Amino acid sequence: MTARAARTARTAGTDAAHAPDVPGEAVPGRAPGLLTATALHKSYGATPALAGADFSVAAGEIVAVMGPSGSGKSTLLHCLAGIVPPDGGSVRYAGRELSALPDTERSALRRSDFGFVFQFGQLVPELTCLENAALPLRLTGTRRREAERRAAEWLERLEVADVRHHRPGQVSGGQGQRVAVARALVGGPRVIFADEPTGALDSLNGERVMELLTAAARETGAAVVLVTHESRVAAYSDREIVVRDGIARDPLGPVPAAGGGTA
Amino acid sequence: MSISHALLGLLEAGPRHGYDLKRSYDERFGHDKPLHYGQVYATMSRLLKNGLVEVDGVESGEGPERKRYAITEAGVTDVAQWLRTPEKPEPYLQSVLYTKVVLALLSGRDAAALLDTQRAEHLRLMRELTRRKSGGDLADQLVCDHALFHLEADLRWLELTAARLDRLAARLGERAA
């Protein structure tokens, strides 16, 4: 089976299992996308950060966004997650145009449907690990006891239950990052955005975080958009999107006509 | 991989039949390439001829070969010598990928597409090894990690080359002129 056929079969299966209720984007030859970028452009001042991103992420799919430093990977992730508005093009999530939503609605959508893991955890230093992991639920109105009960389950699952009453400054980098993964998962997100989630960890800790993150995503049916420049991290994904000079595309997508396919 | 040294090393634990040796080798080191019976018996004949193993006993029974082999003093010395000697690092100076990139550029074909296709193929194998590692024991993990680190090195070279294609094309153009 070719990589493309395997991918189509897998994503089709995932969609059937997890996303019958999601209005998807019709992409020829592909499973319908939960999250779709079309002709995405973004500049900071005169500097173009994104010069064309066209791809789709299906429900339950783990997609690595790869490329060298400064290629536009993080800008792409911020646009996909509705954190930064694009200058041109569109991001559609579950059939809705993100940039057309009012700020409050977009923020609410981010809290209810998206989870985030960053390179340096970005936990709130004044809160315990348990309170940090429970934060997304507290922000969407869940009562403290219930939020902390669910957060404790995820901390247990991510093998950091023993540090739940510690503050982020009192735990190791690997433990802090697992707390951050618990926080990303606690609200039952449809999409997890992970920006270099293992970038600050040694390889053993990094691998464990990736194993736990991808296993949890597969179990819950969450899609993962994984920004990384490390191929060993990207190997946990189902497929990769390559960003070069601000242009993001699926390498198994349409091959340029002239002179292509010589390898 | 020196199969004869690996088999000799396994014999240090005690005498074994050829079949047991093959099974033990396959379990520990075979992974995707189990030994053929022929390889085992040919290797044992050679080791026998060189005095590194001896026949410890012959049993009559089912199967083509029931000789039990034992390692000799000379065999133990040979294994010790092999373990002490560092393996020569691969020089990696003859690269098929580099040759393909140069030929693509010289013939005006799309070298970037070639590199992209290769990256996808490398990542496909890395995914397979990562899955195998996740479900495997420590031995699987170490063997897969060895392969993953080498593939990662190739991928880093692919990225670096992709970023330098214009310069390489210009240099090749100068030489051709």
From TrEMBL, chain A:
Keyword terms, alphabetized: ATP-binding, Nucleotide-binding, Transport
Top-level lineage group: Bacteria
GO MF terms, alphabetically ordered: ATP binding; ATP hydrolysis activity; transmembrane transporter activity
Gene Ontology CC entries for this record: plasma membrane
Protein name (Swiss-Prot/TrEMBL): Putative ABC transport system ATP-binding protein
Domain ABC transporter stretches: 35-260
Ranges of Low complexity composition bias in the record: 1-19
Pfam families: ABC_tran
Source species of the chain: Streptomyces aidingensis
Stretches for region Disordered: 1-30
InterPro entries xrefs: AAA+_ATPase, ABC_transporter-like_ATP-bd, ABC_transpr_LolD-like, MacB-like_ATP-bd, P-loop_NTPase
Automatic annotation (TrEMBL), chain B:
Protein name, entry field: DNA-binding transcriptional regulator, PadR family
Keyword DNA-binding part of the UniProt annotation: yes
Residues that span the membrane, as ranges: none
GO molecular function: DNA binding
Pfam families for the chain: PadR
Domain of life: Bacteria
Keywords for this protein: DNA-binding
Keyword DNA-binding included in the entry's annotation: yes
